[in-house]
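Much of our argument rests on the idea that a fold can be written as discrete symbols. Part of our work consisted of pairing the sequence of a single chain with a tokenised description of its backbone. The amino acid sequence and the backbone structure tokens for this protein are reproduced below.
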Amino acid sequence: MSLVRRPDGTFILLDSYELHESAQEELMALTYGGSLIKAVLNVHPFHTIHCKFIEEMLPHARLIGTRRHYQEKPDLQWDPALIEDPATQQEFADVFDFSIPAGVDFIPEDESVHVSSVMVKHRESGIVHVDDTLMFLDLPSLVDKLVPGPRLRFHPKLADGLEKRAGAADDYVAWAKSLGSDWVDAKMVCAAHNGIFRLNGETFADAMDEALDHASDTLDKHRNKYG
């Protein structure tokens, strides 16, 4: 979960998470008892567990999610806006850039495939907030010396997430390369479950190219099967 201050002094939460007591106290102290948090943007369709906690903690804030959030948690007071819609993203374009991968199913039938999400870049800080689409591989120091290479990876179920059609792999590559170029000034990637990837001595474009190289076998297999 990321806390972001807008230019007007209000705040936005990216994603929902059930905080332990000390972290919740810190969040409330930063946001005038939570009253300055105006919206919560849930950007991964399959991350729904903690939404109820956040709604109860911040009942006044707009709770925005994907269409799957609405379907899975219909008892929550969801805002009618959907975060995957360009019109909703435009509401927050004063501080964020958004991106959804091409060539993959946004909400696949197989609920173990968490390949797609709405990626968010906080423009001022250059921090990318991402759930699962990109993952940070933190290798032990000894292993890292023996197996050097990129640490930013695409979700391991990319093969299952690619759309079953010709050109899907190429669409995914084009999206990844375009994102690397568009967000080339990114300084850090906050990845769900994994940690923080700091872009020290390389650009986001470099990291995305390396991640594509690592996924090249997966992408080639898809091309061989579907075209």
Summary: Confidence is low (pLDDT under 50) at residues 141-146. The first strand starts at residue 2 and ends at 5.
